[in-house]
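Recall the central idea of this unit: under ordinary conditions, the amino acid sequence of a chain determines the structure it adopts. In this exercise we apply that idea directly, starting from the sequence alone.
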Amino acid sequence: MSNDWHRADVIAALKKTGIPLAKLSRRSGYSTGTLANALVRPWPKGERIIADALNMKPEEIWPSRYLRDHNERVDISN
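Accordingly, the structure predicted from this sequence is:
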């Protein structure tokens, strides 16, 4: 199984797009530090916001949160 991105790598990737995490959080209607929660614990909505900003899928950034053994996708729709 692939490793999740390090949170510093996620932050750096966002900065490279010109949208720092705090700014993305505010643009999404949250307080400045709210999206940082997705960097340290599962939060599908926050993960989707971050992934969308990077033109990626959340499971590409946090595979351990979405894929089980043998790359079976975890259902997080609830």
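The chain has one domain: 7-68.
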